[in-house]
Amino acid sequence: MACQCQPAPVKPDGRFRTALWIALIINLLMFVVELFGGMYAHSAALWADALDFFGDAANYAISLAVLGMSLYWRATVALLKGITMATFGCLVLAKTVYNYMQGIPPEAITMGVIGGLALVANVVAAVILYRFRDGDSNMKSVWLCSRNDAIGNVAVILAAVGVFGTGSLLPDIIVAVIMAGLGLTAGYQVIKKAWAERQMSATTSA
Question: Which residues form the Cation efflux protein transmembrane domain (predicted)?
Fold first, then answer.
């Protein structure tokens, strides 16, 4: 006779909870900074990064809410987060096309300063979350968010240098496309792992 029991919910890791709170606060603060900075600088890359910070903050808040729940529900939330990450990638692509059609070069100095500040913030968050990168799909998703943000910030700084040197909006556009690609690929990874965990949980409870 098959077991009718679900695996017991994993006891929340206090270190993971603390790491999530720190990452949540960092992302909310940087969302505000990059939102207004991107508007001021007319930068698609900064604006995209601001939305990414907001999405990550929401992801961290959701992750805090599901700590201690069963694998099925943690995987379900991670699946939704993966879809959100992929959707974000599509939105960034749309915004990039819009900025390209407008043809207004961004303000390079503002891009560089805010990009540098964002890089520091994301490196701190990524280091804090690094030890949890091989956990379940929920843990994996928060690590991928921070890793992608740090990579994106380096790209924003390089774009600022390119805009400053050429006076063209092309470097900003290229970075925005790269960030969209990161969102799409990370979303796919999270969706794939979360779906497998949901299937495994359903099989175990059958």
Answer: 20-194
